[in-house]
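Morning!

This is the sequence you dropped in the shared folder:
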Amino acid sequence: MKVILVNGSPHRKGCTYTTLKEVAGELNKNGIDTEIFQVGTNPVAGCIACGACLKTGKCFRDDVVNDFLDKVSEADGFIFGSPVHYASASGEITSFLDRVFYGRGALFANKVGASVVSCRRGGATAAFDQLNKYFTMNNMIVVSSQYWNMVHGNNSDEVVQDLEGMQTMRTLGKNMAWILKCIEAGKKAGVELPQREAPIKTNYIR
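The structure's back. Tokens below.
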């Protein structure tokens, strides 16, 4: 089994990376393979709802989004990490996830997901809530921890000193590994995936 951890910070090995590494370490201890995927520093354009991906399975902008979509099928779980910018997730990961999930949400159904955020002081819960919405409208299984998945610190050295935050990340890794193993055991026992109803769209203006 494998989990892809997405680093939505422009800093390759900063606070968000340090947070994701703590989760990855616990997953590895429990026999789960991991890969940290860096969104990077190149501009990530937002989704323009053109619908091209619905026809081709790829975004017409051939960039890091398509690189990530190529990896989705090989993963059983995902963790999206972001620094907190003005009480929100970073602009890079917001545009990235909008395009990843638009029209491609079915790729993530019945897979596990979690988000983590890093901040200097405040705004973490708002950013955390924002990221979790991608899971809850795409039939994903959201993994929790012993507290909201956040760490505090202005650099990676300070993040490591947030002992409660680091423990929260280790607990998240343990919980995700356990849920992945439970899902795998269920599959081997013949437990079928939920049967989805055809989507019903209700528009409020007629």
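Headline: The first strand starts at residue 2 and ends at 7.

More detail when I'm at my desk.
O.
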